Amino acid sequence: MQALYKAWFVDFIHFNGAKPDNWTISSLGEVTNMGAGGDKPKIISAIQTEECPYPIYSNGLSDNGLYGYTNTPKIYDESVTVSARGTIGFVCIRHTPYVPIVRLVTLIPNTEIISAKYLYLYLKQLNITGTGTTQQQLTVPDFRKTEILVPDKETMSAFTDIITPLFSKIWANEKENASLSTTRDTLLPKLMSGELDVSEVNF
Known about the structure:
Belongs to the type-I restriction system S methylase family. Pfam families: Methylase_S (PF01420). The protein has helices at residues 2-9, 28-31, 116-124, 140-143, 153-193; strands spanning 24-27, 32-36, 54-57, 66-70, 79-83, 91-94, 99-100, 104-109, 147-150. By secondary structure, the chain is of the alpha+beta class. It has a single domain, classed as Alpha-Beta Complex (Adenine-n6-DNA-methyltransferase TaqI, Chain A, domain 2), CATH 3.90.220.20.
């Protein structure tokens, strides 16, 4: 997908090798609703349950920053998160309701202008850095000033339509893998303890 993005919006292969005149340069603050993650929820589960189905994300790299699960989401829209401290610049796209916590910047795109998928791919190719001498961090006021290329609406829609099935396939695979991992984690202790006997099962 990054190669597709580069072909369209860096090399301009589909546009005779040059940026179309009707494309503009805006700031992230102009095309997104940007905010900083909040405190940890009071209710946290280490695993996803019916009572706590919504993921909590932090600035970690492991499992795309998954911290745990809670009962109420804060962000409902498809959006992008960027780590603001530690792993500064780690970019993820979020397509299900979730809760962002401290050290994570959330960007909800104005979908009349750009899509979350375009925003994600744009940010992935940036060298996002922080400020500060003791411990670097990415601040919302500074990050809002970051420039972003904004294609015309027709181009944005066409590109988003092309890459959406690719994202959907990735998310479907991730969901299946998570389901298989849950099944494994449930069955393995029972097999190890002898609670579940499979000696007579024919493979």
